[in-house]
Amino acid sequence: xxxxxxxxxRLVFQYCDARTVRALRQVSGRYxxxxxxxxxxxxxxxxxxxxDITRLRSIAGHxxxxxxxxxxxxNFSQVDExxxxxxxxxxxxxxxxxERSALLQDAWLRYYELEESARKLPPFHSRSTAxxxxxxxxxxxxxxxxxxxxxxxxxxxxEEVFQVRRCRKRDRHQACxxxxxIVSAIRHIRLASLSIDQLPLExxxxxxxRRHWFDCARSFASLSRLTLVLDPPPNLLPSARxxxxxxxxxxLHYSVNLTHLTLAFHTYHAPxxxxxxxxxxxxxGQDFVYPRLTDLKLEGVSCxxxxxxGFLLRHGATLERLRLxxxxxxxxxxxxxxxxxxxxxxxxxxxxxxxxxMSRLKRFHMEGDAEAGDFMTSxxxxxxxxxxxxxxxxxxxxxxxxxKCGGWTAGMACVKVVNCLGxxxxxxxxxxxxxxxxxxxxxxxxxxxxx
Length: 451
Description:
Elements: H1 6-14, H2 18-25, H3 29-34, E1 43-47, H4 52-60, E2 71-75, E3 78-79, H5 81-91, H6 97-119, H7 128-136, E4 143-147, H8 156-161, E5 168-169, H9 172-186, E6 193-200, H10 207-214, H11 217-221, E7 225-231, H12 238-254, E8 260-265, E9 275-276, H13 279-282, E10 295-299, E11 301-304, H14 305-314, E12 321-325, E13 341-344, H15 347-354, E14 363-372, E15 381-385, E16 416-418, H16 421-429
Parallel strand pairs: 1-2, 2-4, 4-6, 6-7, 7-8, 8-10, 9-11, 10-12, 11-13, 12-14, 13-14, 15-16
Antiparallel strand pairs: 3-5, 14-15
């Protein structure tokens, strides 16, 4: 094997796990040299209960290893112990008592050990200087993810319970500090993609916080993919709301080279609420256009038909895939509640005006609760769109046929449970506007009343 070409040796290393890579490097000096680049996984995950900042800085300081890191995830998620303890008990209550007790005890003992390790470390935001030093020396870092919604522990019991949103602890003030520390380091690199799940909206309100983001204008300009899942605070006065939207708009302005944009609002204090969004205010009244935008997803927003139509038509020459709505904060057993509402206008008017004007559109998907029109009018449109594909446009299994969507359908006279296949054909291929909710519709859509 010593006479194999370097390309074949690299191919062999690509099929090896971490343990095999270390063993194979001991075969010869040549294998040790070639295997250097396979010592580290190209994706690095940092959690708060482990001193990953020191480890990341050590890797960044190594001449041969620092080029291995290509993507990075910061997981700041925490468990709400009180709610999680009760939930884990009920999730396993069908097991034998002795088996259940042993399972839960082992899981929580492991959790307390990790939390004790976390308490011995300084707060994440206090190590911003070390983080900046690491970022400066990671030449191949292109993808960055920040999340507060994924389980940070390799403990199956907690991984299960973490799907229940009330079992996650939320500290908005601490989250803002951690976000600012990372954004301060971003200005030293050129990212291709940035994803933030559960970003406090008020972070764009105060001047000191906004400064960290505005200093990264050049870094945002290099992005091709941007995913922002924002969490509006429960009480935000009009002036503070305006400044927050204005700050968010600046960040979106800086990201002028985007090809993929996801903008979602998850209101944790009221999961069924939709965030009132004005594209005119978000982009400072300008006819702003992303010249390369091919994929757009909007979730959990309430807007006017004319405003949304204008934003979509400005991107009609490039937009290939459009998603309106999503899962939102729905529990696994619920229908999606991350839909799009129109507080002015109608869906029929919106989609009819878009037909034939989006020349490159290939796929369209709509999901979740969708409402349009005045509450007092008989023409009000109320739908629940079932998911057909996931965010990667892969088919998904159909959801159960229950008559609840997070509780919001209760008492409504007529809620139409449909899918978006008819609308997709209408926008992409043309033809007549689909009869949403009619049983004789070719898209196999049905009608379920909410009463």
